[in-house]
Amino acid sequence: MRIIFLVGPPLAGKDTQAGLLAKLFNTQAISAGEILRQADDEEVKRIMKEGKVVGAEVLKRYVLGWIKDHLNILRKHTTLIITGMPRAKEDLEVLDEIVKLFKPSHVDIVVLDISLDTAKKRLKGRYICPKCGRVYNIYTAPPKNDLLCDDDKTPLVRRIDDEEEGIVEKRFNHYITEELPAVLEFARPFHLVKINGEGSINEVFKRICKALFLECDRIIR
Q1: Model confidence over 147-162: pLDDT tens digits?
Q2: Tens of pLDDT along 126-142?
Q3: Beta-bridge partners for 192
Q4: Which CATH superfamily is domain 2-211 in?
């Protein structure tokens, strides 16, 4: 098995790129953030809305718990795509546990890099389908019909942690000071690639594929 972790600052396009990679490999994209947003836990939702880190224990309860609940299905895939972790060094034990569960022969850490200005601009245009989870941006990847999902026609919504612009700067600074150092520590024994996340979805996806030695022409939208 191969596991690809996608990490980066807020609004870097992690879930969007994870979805494209999942299509390429015909596999599962696991979004820690989406699992947490779906959790029936008001305290977790409050923490996320404030741009704070939920902590390793919450990741164990919900994200690792979800993975264990679906373990038999997930193990049937040859590749898994995971986004949204780690957010701090204490989260590394959760990632270590995931690696132990699947015993992959190859692990890639893909770091998407964007500027704070780009993150702020993308924030204003980001919408998500609450049914299928597909992410849109009215500036870079708009839906075909006004604020309706292309796949299931569900009205698009804003994410709960996208409500206030000030939260993005707070999360961005946390990424630089806490999350990125944790990522680099976790990546030491694995294959780490840094990708310029600026530009269109297709441009970024092509860069990822090139760095991972993948052929992506059939997936480009």
Answers
A1: 999 999 999 998 776 6
A2: 899 999 888 898 888 89
A3: 109
A4: P-loop containing nucleotide triphosphate hydrolases (3.40.50.300)
Report residue 11: phi and psi, to 5°.
70, 15
- Return all residues near 131 (Cβ < 8 A) that are at least 6 apart: 149, 152, 154
Please give the Cα distance from 112 to 119 (Å, whole number). Answer: 12
Q: Would you kindly state where each structural domain of the chain is located, as residue ranges?
A: 2-211
Q: Against a cut of 0.85, is the pTM above it?
A: yes
Per-residue model confidence as pLDDT tens digits over 30-76: 999 999 999 999 999 899 888 888 999 999 999 999 999 999 999 99
> Dihedral angle at the C-alpha atoms of 80, 17, 60, 92, nearest 10 degrees?
90
Could you give the CA distance from residue 147 to residue 197 in angstroms, rounded to a whole number? 24
Position 131: which residue type? K
Tokens of 35: 């699992």
